[in-house]
Amino acid sequence: MPMMKLMEGMLGTTRRSRRPTMVDVAREAGVALRTVSRVVNNDSTVGPELVERVRTAIAALDYRPDERARHLRLGVTGTLGAAVRQLSHVNPVLRAVERAARAADLMVLAASTEDDELLERQVVESMCRRRFDGIILEPIGADHGYLVPELAAGLSLVAVDRPVLGLDVDCVISDNVAGIRTAFAHLVGHGHHRIAYIGDDERIYTARERATAFRACAADHGGPLDGMVHTGRIEPDRIRSAVRAALGGPAPATAIVTGNATISVEVLRRLGQDSEKVAIVGFDDSELATLLRPDLTVVAQDDTAIGSMAVEMLRARIADPGRPVDRVTVPVELLRRGSGEISPIA
Amino acid sequence: MPMMKLMEGMLGTTRRSRRPTMVDVAREAGVALRTVSRVVNNDSTVGPELVERVRTAIAALDYRPDERARHLRLGVTGTLGAAVRQLSHVNPVLRAVERAARAADLMVLAASTEDDELLERQVVESMCRRRFDGIILEPIGADHGYLVPELAAGLSLVAVDRPVLGLDVDCVISDNVAGIRTAFAHLVGHGHHRIAYIGDDERIYTARERATAFRACAADHGGPLDGMVHTGRIEPDRIRSAVRAALGGPAPATAIVTGNATISVEVLRRLGQDSEKVAIVGFDDSELATLLRPDLTVVAQDDTAIGSMAVEMLRARIADPGRPVDRVTVPVELLRRGSGEISPIA
DNA sequence: GTGAAAGCGCTAACAT
DNA sequence: ATGTTAGCGCTTTCAC
Question: What kind of fold does domain A19-74 have according to CATH?
Answer without folding.
Answer: 434 Repressor (Amino-terminal Domain) (1.10.260)
